[in-house]
Design a protein that fits this description.
508 residues; mainly beta; 24-stranded mixed β-sheet; 12-stranded parallel β-sheet
Length: 508
């Protein structure tokens, strides 16, 4: 298909060479600015590789990390887009995302140890077990340091901790730590600048070097001068009510963030939910299957390095960018995004996945600010198989690879659309030129023209309305001075090429 597209563009370039005298553009200019429209279409496919729970491509018979059906990005193998149009891409194994104990909202207190907090006295947990913590104190940390095969459950039962420079809960080592709230209100706060623990930058109110699970039936309020919750491994949240205010990221983890339920009110000066491992760009996914989210963020609402997958929940985001990741897949849920920049943005953050936005279901509303902003912006592909999408703003869709509209209902500025129009900011012009492009509004006007193009159907001044001559003084054969119809079903109108897109990172 890529070869076919290149041939198509080559033919198109030859056909429109006759107009270059009108436009003062080179053939390179023409091919680089052609805007494309993709309707409900099917494309050639490639097989997607299996992906394990950590979001890593599965290996297949001695092949590279991504197995079959992969595409190359910067010399690295990557997981390709779904082989069959209309079918969801298999990205993460969701069957084993959470254990039974992760999902339990009450702790077994049969053999629990009860501890009451005191000012200035740290609580040191050095053996596996369940610990019920209660009381109000300042300058105190609950420190967990057990063997890497042992699990600890911290039960917060009416806890109020205010620290100046250290985490309220600090997990140095463990197999996994649970932080469970009883049916009570709990508050953890750090008011000053965090002090490092040796070489460890303990910059969060809850800071864990190992796997961390938050659950329970109560509420937890977190206030931080840096990060709210930071986990250097996998972070899971399966229940509870959370109110987080942070000067940096509210919830962050290195390898993954997995949320099945909970109520979240987040006010973050940076990202609200952020998963990234600076040492390994093949991990760092975000998976949400439920919960209620009220997010205000100074940067991204939700950011994942690899995959951002949403299978459910109600998510309200006000941010600079609503969601960002390498491969964003929305299968269900109610999502409302108000963004001053792009609403949903897929860009290259991982070498393990292709860049793609894929919508298979859900109810998605995106409102963008003015300027060069897009509702859905992908540096790779956009695939819509289902769901209800409403976009309000200057530009609904912008992609660099390929686009498919296989199903669902899509409206842009209140009008239902049946094909995806690629918007390139300031727009481009028609060959005969109506008024100049208006910031991506279907790009009318002549190439190289400004916002005040020549009147519709007229050539620029000085051309006398004539077609420029070919080297032999003739227009292309059969054209009678008119533009030829592009091959492969494309046609040129209002400065757009309609048909298959050119380029892209791989076949679908």
């Amino acid at each position: 298909m890529i070869k076919k597209n290149k041939i198509t563009v080559a033919i198109m370039t030859a056909v429109i060479t006759a107009t270059l005298g009108l436009t003062a553009c080179s053939s390179e200019d023409v091919t680089s600015v052609l805007s494309t429209t993709i309707g409900q279409d099917t494309t050639e496919s490639s097989n997607s590789s299996d992906v394990n729970e950590a979001g890593n491509p599965g290996q297949d018979q001695g092949q590279g990390p991504a197995g079959d059906g992969q595409m190359q990005m910067g010399g690295e193998s990557s997981t390709s887009v779904s082989g069959t149009p209309g079918e969801p891409t298999q990205l993460l194994d969701t069957a084993d995302m959470f254990t039974e104990r992760d999902l339990e909202q009450e702790a077994d207190l049969t053999d629990a140890t009860n501890i009451t907090l005191s000012d200035g006295e740290d609580v040191n947990i050095t053996s596996e077990g369940v610990y019920v913590i209660s009381g109000t104190a300042s300058d105190v940390s609950i420190i967990v340091e057990v063997a890497d095969t042992e699990k600890v459950q911290i039960v917060l039962d009416g806890v109020n901790i205010t620290n100046t420079d250290s985490p309220a809960i600090y997990v140095k080592s463990a197999d996994k730590v649970f932080v469970t709230t009883t049916d009570s209100d709990n508050t953890l706060k750090v008011t000053g600048t965090f002090t490092a623990d040796g070489t460890t930058n303990t910059d969060a109110v809850i800071f864990s070097k190992d796997d961390l699970v938050l659950n329970g039936k109560g509420s937890l309020t977190i206030s931080s001068t840096a990060n709210g919750i930071s986990c250097k491994d996998d972070l899971k949240i399966t229940g509870g009510t959370y109110d987080i205010t942070s000067s940096e990221d509210a919830i962050e983890a290195n390898d993954s963030i997995r949320i099945s339920d909970g109520t979240f009110k987040i006010n973050s000066s940076k990202d609200a939910i952020h998963s990234e491992n600076s040492d390994d760009d093949t991990v760092g996914f975000v998976y949400i299957s439920g919960g209620s989210f009220d997010i205000e963020a100074g940067d991204d609402g939700i950011q994942a390095t690899t995959v951002l997958m949403i299978d459910g929940g109600t998510i309200d985001i006000t941010a600079v960018e609503g969601m960002e990741g390498t491969f964003i897949q929305i299968n269900d849920g109610i999502i409302n995004v108000s963004a001053s920049d792009d609403g949903i943005n897929a860009s290259t953050k991982s070498s393990a996945y292709d860049v793609c936005i894929e919508v298979n279901g859900g109810d998605i509303t995106v409102e963008m600010g003015s300027g060069d902003t897009d509702g859905f912006d992908s540096n790779g592909d956009i695939i819509i198989n289902g769901g209800t999408i409403s976009v309000t703003g200057n530009s609904a869709f912008d992609w660099d690879g390929e686009a498919q509209l296989n199903g669902g209902t899509v409206t842009f500025n209140g009008e239902e659309i049946t094909e995806l129009t690629n918007q390139f900011g300031g727009g481009m012009g028609g060959f005969g030129g109506g008024p100049g492009g208006q910031n991506g509004q279907n790009g009318q006007g002549g190439f190289g023209g400004d916002q005040n193009g020549a009147p519709s159907g007229q050539a620029p001044d000085g051309t006398d309305g004539q077609m420029p001559q070919m080297p032999d003084g003739q227009a292309p054969d059969g054209s009678n001075g008119q533009m030829s119809t592009p091959p492969d079903g494309g046609n040129v109108g209002n400065g757009q090429m309609q048909g298959r897109p050119q380029g892209g990172k791989g076949q679908h």
